[in-house]
Structures are given as C-alpha cells and as structure tokens.
Amino acid sequence: MKNILWLGMALFCLHLNAQENKKEENLWSAHRASSHAPIGVMGDHTHHKGEFMVSYRYMTMQMQDLRYESDDVNEEFVYQNYMTAPQEMMMGMHMLGAMYAPSDGLTFMVMANYITNDMDLTMRMSNDMGMAMDTDFSTSSSGFGDVSVSALVNLMNKNQQALHAEFGIGIPTGSIDEKDETAMSNGEEVILPYPMQIGSGSFSTKLGMTYLWQTEKLSGGAQANAKFFLNENDNDYRLGNQYLATSWLALDATENFSFSVRAEANYTEQIEGNNPVLNPMMVTTANTSNSGGMQLNYAIGGNYYFTKNTLKGLRFAAEVKLPAYQEPNGVQLKQKYSVTLGTQYSF
Q1: Out of the domains of life, which is the source (predicted)?
Q2: Residue 76, SS3 per DSSP
C-alpha cells in the first residue's frame, strides 16, 4: 500500500513539472514512442481526420492462493463453509481493436476479444470412516467475449496537453452458459460458476476521461472510467459495476523506444442476483458474495515505435502488472500477475 502511494505522489509531481515546462505553441504529438499509453491502457488516444489504427493485444493473468477480504487464508478456512476450494486460475485474452477518426474531434473505437479460462480445484468429502478425502479436478472454458463500441471526443489539444472523453456501449455477445465436467457431476457437463463464464449477458455503458501531457523527453497521462451493467441477464444476475483510475509516466529513451511506469486502482461491485442453477455452498466461485472488491496495482512497460520507411506507424509494446494491495469481497483467489503484449499500426 505504501509503495503505491509513493508512486502516485511521484507521478503527480511529474504532472506538475510538465505543466510548468510546457511550450505554449506546441500541440500534443502522437508521433513519439511514448505518445501512446502503456499497452494495458485502453482508449488512451485519439486520431486525426481520416486516420485508421488496428491493434492486437494478448493478455494473460494468473490467480493463485486464497484471500478473505484483507487477510490471506488457506483451504481449511474454505472447507468450513464449502465443499470445494479453487487452487489456481489462468486466464488468457486475445483482443482485436480498430479505430477510425471521421474528424479531428471524434474517433470511433471497436474492440472484440477471445477468452480462455482454466481453473484447478480441490473437493473435500468424508468417507465412511470420517476421514477427509480430497479430489483434484480442473475446468475450462473458451469463446468470443462481449464486443465494445466507443466514441472518443476531443476536448482540448494545446500546450503539449490533450484531453478527451469516452462514451461506450458493451454488447453481450459472450456466452454465460459455459459448461464442463466437475468432480461432482458424474461425467455430465454442468454450468460453470461466474468467473468461468465468457461474457456478461448484459448490455453496458462506459464513461471515461483521459488526460495526456508531454515534455521534450517525458510523457504521461491519467485516466478514469466507469463501466455500468444495465440489465439482469437471462441467468438472473448482473455483473458488478467497475471503476478504474490509472496514471502513468513514460520516458523516451531513444527516438524509437520508451519505457513506462504505471499505478492503477480498480474497484468492482458484487454481482447482483444469482444463477439459480448454481449451488452457492458447493464452491466459493458459485457464491456471488465472493465477487468484486478493491485492487491496487503497479506496472512497468515499454513501447517500440517505427518512425521511418515502410514500417512507419507500427508499434510493439509490452507491460507487466503486479498487485500492490488486494481486498476482495468474501473469499477469492489472489491475482499474482498479468502480462500484456501488443502491436498497433496507424495509417
């Protein structure tokens, strides 16, 4: 917690320094290695009239070990109330994006993704002798997730600073009926708990604001957004609303390469309602009380940007994100790390 506060203070001071040293006549420029935010930030920039951009990102995240609110716990804690304890989860996401600017003041963005989920679990039962017997098993799911469409509206671009707003909608194209065999299903495929589903099943709206600044060698920015799920889905639940705030600092080490540091705060509300098919006493992930919570993260990353010849406009980027503090609602697996790799091409 202390580390994330120091990082936030440092980023804030650099924001102030950038404003004091800005050149009044210059506009914010997109043609620098550091002009795009770290690859883990979405909707960070806009384009000039007639410009296109296509992008691909791959993000992988590992979750392991158990936490109950502000305390680490073990499996024995879980078995007091549930038959099954999750052990580890790996999530992978392939993200395809496209942006187009019909004018200097407006940029449209669309994003689609393909998700894979794998979870290892252990079920505990007692035999006739009263001895505990553990059974390990795994479940998995995969498929195309929800699609998002956004409009990015320029509000300011002067003095090497830029500001834009985001207005988006989410379309529930991802499945909420993913099934797999479990240790309790006797070879039958049964509906999987909430974290293993691919989509939300609900329409959503996203509102956000992004601020960018530059000096001769430094770039940075801050973004805040909120995502609201608008309706209960066909399985009688609605995912919790999500709130995100992040700030970053990037240094242009060379003409083509920059590296970055970033701080992030993420809060997700609990799931409302519940899928009547799921037994909330069977496993922690089937109980909606064990959903949402607060997460503080820090990240390091790098961008490589081609500025000349036939590859001009092509960018490769990577970012590693680690948790600084986690306080989930109820009992949940802890996030260990996430890695995002990506490429973007503007033309």
Answers
A1: Bacteria
A2: helix
* Cα 124 to Cα 121: distance, rounded to the nearest angstrom: 10
Q: What share of the chain is helix, strand, coil (3-state, %, to 5)?
A: 10, 55, 35
For residues 283 and 256, give the distance between their C-alpha atoms in angstroms, rounded to a whole number: 49
DSSP 270: P
Burial 294-319 (b: 16+ CB within 10 A, else e): bbbbbbebbbebeeeeeeebebebbb
Of the candidates 58, 121, 37, the one whose C-alpha atom is nearest the C-alpha of residue 340 is 58
CA distances for 52 relative to 56, 156, 242, 294, angstroms: 14, 21, 29, 36
Residues 21-34 pLDDT 10s: 434 446 777 778 88
Strand partners, 89: 63, 119
CATH class held by domain 2-346 = mainly beta
Element (H, E) at 19: helix 2-20
**Least confident residue range of 98-112, 116-130, 258-272, 277-291:** 116-130
Tens digits of residue pLDDT in 181-192: 999 888 899 999
Neighbouring-strand partners of residue 225: 208, 244
Domain boundaries, the chain: 2-346
3 state DSSP class of 262 = strand
pTM greater than 0.85 (yes/no): yes
108 CB burial (10 A radius; 0-12, 13-18, 19+)? middle
Q: Do 28 and 44 touch, CB atoms closer than 8 A?
A: no
Tokens of residue 205, six digits = 């709206």
CA pair distance 76, 178, nearest whole angstrom:
29
Burial of residue 320, with CB atoms counted within 10 A of its CB: 0-12 exposed, 13-18 middle, 19 or more buried: middle
Give me 53's structure tokens: 């951009």
Map tokens 């935010």 to a residue. 37
DSSP calls for 30-64:
S-STTSSPPTT-SS-----TT-EEEEEEEEEEEEE
